[in-house]
Design a protein that fits this description.
Blueprint (H helix, E strand, L loop, with lengths): L1 H6 L7 E4 L15 H15 L3 E5 L9 H7 L2 E3 L3 E4 L4 E4 L10 H11 L1 H9 L2 H20 L10 H10 L4 E4 L6 E7 L2 E7 L8 E6 L4 E6 L4
Parallel strand pairs: 1-2, 2-3, 5-6, 6-8
Antiparallel strand pairs: 4-5, 7-8, 9-10
Bound molecules: manganese (II) ion.
């Protein structure tokens, strides 16, 4: 469905912003994985057809590097990223940094974002990282079938601070698996927060900016 999206609907756009966790797991740009290669090649084809592609790291694919970006014809974005368009400005983020009430998750996040930890991980032999990647994907698939897993939501006070720091611009993020549009009043100013939907086998979603409004567009298997 994502490949069809890249070769079809996405190409009507000027630019495509992918806000993290495009991949379930990423254990290094040097791992030769046919499943990942197919996606990288499709990104590249869209990029060569003129689509500007920007990719942010998520908590699962935080190890995406320059070699991947080059192969995909994409540019890696910092998180958060202030996007200023002629008509409006936005702040884009994966969203996990503001889920501060999940202490176990924040401890994990601090660990995997640590440059020293990342260096040690990259130094591990390729076969080991490849196995680790397959294990994480398997475990994640198993957890998804178990619907009892609840993702933490953004902490309200930290979110208000974030919106203040980013000039009360429209905030777009994902990660929480709670697609919704929220109205925040921060210092008396109305700020919108758009939470992206996650993608499943039978339905995906893209948020489309047409120069005036944001619209959620369903991406379906046969569309
Ligand atoms: Mn995530």
């Amino acid at each position: 469905m994502f490949l069809r999206f890249l070769s079809g609907r996405a190409r009507q756009a000027e630019a495509l912003y992918i806000l993290g966790d495009l991949f379930e797991v990423w254990v290094g740009d040097d791992i030769d994985d046919p499943y990942h290669n197919q996606i990288t090649a499709a990104l590249r084809a869209a990029s060569e057809a003129g689509l500007k592609i920007f990719i942010m790291h998520g908590n699962r694919d935080f190890a995406l590097g320059d070699q991947f970006a080059q192969a995909a014809g994409a540019k890696l974005l910092p998180d958060p990223y202030d996007l200023t368009l002629p008509e409006w400005s936005f702040v884009l983020s994966h969203g996990d940094a503001l889920c501060l009430d999940d202490l176990a998750y924040q401890a994990y996040r601090a660990k995997v974002r640590d440059p020293e930890w990342q260096r040690k991980m990259r130094a591990k032999p390729r076969f080991l990282r490849s196995l680790l990647g397959r294990y994480i994907r398997w475990r994640s698939g198993r957890r998804k079938r178990d619907d009892s897993y609840i993702y933490a939501d953004l902490q309200p006070a930290a979110t208000d601070d974030f919106l203040r720091d980013h000039g009360y611009t429209t905030f777009i993020h994902g990660h929480t698996h709670r697609a919704a549009t929220h109205d925040h009043i921060v210092d008396g100013i109305h700020v919108e927060r758009w939470v992206l939907a996650d993608w499943h086998e039978d339905r995906g979603e893209a948020l489309v900016w047409d120069g005036e409004t944001l619209n959620r567009e369903a991406i379906l298997p046969e569309s």
